[in-house]
Amino acid sequence: MKYHYLLPFIAIGAFTGCATAPTELKDVEAISYADTVYLKQEDVFSAFNAYETKINNRVNRLEYQVNELESRLENMATSADNNSTVEIVDGSRKQWACTLTHSEKRFMAQSLNKAAATFNVINKCLAGGVDDFYCQERDVVCSDE
To answer: What UniProt keywords are attached to this protein's entry (predicted)?
Structure first.
């Protein structure tokens, strides 16, 4: 399979009945091993850049979620402190914090803690010079392999 690039020329020569196909290939250069390695490196870098973009997008979404949760928790705290923050829900005035069930408040707190823990690990990875990390459902793991 080393000379698979010759097949089209041989096929053309056989089809036209031309016996000079091999002499016409004198100007064709084979791809060197260095070129092959370079092409593979380009593929790896392209895949790495796509993966890096995907990770950056995930981090940006996490940052947005953290900011959103912090804002909501701040609103809850403000509402609980002075009982003055109100929302119009279905035409009636209700305190925003009172519209959340206990499970919703718990979920928000857990989500905020999870996002904060994720950022802590990512920051530790980056501070340690490790830019290879992957997210699992419950945690973020540094990998320096």
So the answer is: Coiled coil
Write down the pTM of the prediction.
0.33
Q: Which amino acid is at 70?
A: E
pLDDT in tens, the chain (145 residues): 455 555 555 555 554 554 444 555 555 566 666 666 666 777 778 888 888 888 888 888 888 888 888 887 777 766 665 554 455 455 544 454 555 667 777 777 777 777 777 777 777 777 776 665 555 444 555 554 4
Spell out the long-range contacts of 73-77 with Cβ–Cβ below 8 A and sequence spacing 24 or more: 73/108, 73/109, 73/112, 76/100, 76/105
Q: What residue spans define the domains of the chain?
A: 32-142
Give the total residue count for the chain. 145
3-class secondary structure per residue, 45-91: HHHHHHHHHHHHHHHHHHHHHHHHHHHHHHHHHHHHHHCCCEEEECC
Using alpha carbons only, give the angle 73, 76, 77 rounded to the nearest 5 degrees.
Answer: 90
What are the helix and strand counts (H, E) for the chain? Answer: 4, 4
Contacts of 128 (CB under 8 A, 6+ apart): 142, 144
